[in-house]
Write a structure and sequence with these properties.
Helix content: 25-40%
Pfam families: MGAT2
Subcellular location: Golgi apparatus membrane
Main location: Golgi
Membrane topology: Single-pass type II membrane protein
Distance between the termini: 35 Å
Strand content: 5-15%
Order of helices and strands: EEHEHHHEHEH
Number of helices: 6
Largest sheet: 5 strands, mixed
Structural class: alpha/beta
Number of strands: 5
GO molecular function: alpha-1,6-mannosylglycoprotein 2-beta-N-acetylglucosaminyltransferase activity; metal ion binding
């Protein structure tokens, strides 16, 4: 995965850190503001659609974290992130509710852009590998937490993924015949 933004962006990188990318365990609390991933990551999500679609949580990011912690392979999602954001969200999020108003997100993005504008495309990047997050705690999912509780939402999520799983199984059928 690749995180283009940072949550709680008041700690913007300065000095040498502005050229540093970190490869670390993905944590929605820090990395879900602007997130991208490749097709193989999408296939992992799809293959665990039951973990993603059938838990009742309030956030796609927490559902994704649940997959990362509980999937059978045991390998948590990794992310490359930067302390200098390359993209911004202007709405209030789950993890950053401070100064949450109509224009605060826009002001915050413009302020960060002013601070970091010349570092958006640095001449070099340093990758800090295998940074592990300290607060890697076991995640519990509570019932009726504002997420997929509505059967229509669960069906919508499942329909986006189950057809992909069926196609993969049909494609694999020839290998076992």
């Amino acid at each position: 995965m690749f995180s283009l933004g940072t949550i709680g962006s008041s700690d913007i990188a300065v000095g040498k850190d502005r050229y540093r990318l970190e490869l670390t365990t993905w944590e929605p609390k820090y990395h879900s503001e602007v997130l991208g991933f490749d097709y193989s990551t999408w296939n992992i999500i799809v293959s665990h659609f039951d973990l993603f679609c059938l838990i009742d949580d309030y956030s796609w990011a927490r559902s994704l974290q649940y997959i990362s912690i509980n999937r059978l392979e045991g390998n948590k999602f990794k992310v490359i992130s930067s302390k200098v954001p390359r993209s911004f969200t202007t709405n209030c999020g789950t993890y950053d509710l401070t100064n949450c108003g109509e224009f605060e997100g826009i002001y915050k993005a413009l302020h960060i852009q002013k601070l970091t504008g010349s570092n958006t495309f640095p001449p070099l990047l340093e990758i800090k590998n295998n940074v592990e997050l300290i607060d890697d705690i076991e995640m519990t999912v509570t019932e009726n937490n504002g997420g997929w509780n509505d059967i229509r939402d669960r069906e919508f999520c499942s329909n986006m993924t189950i057809s992909k799983v069926k196609k993969l199984l049909l494609d694999m059928k020839a290998q076992f015949m």
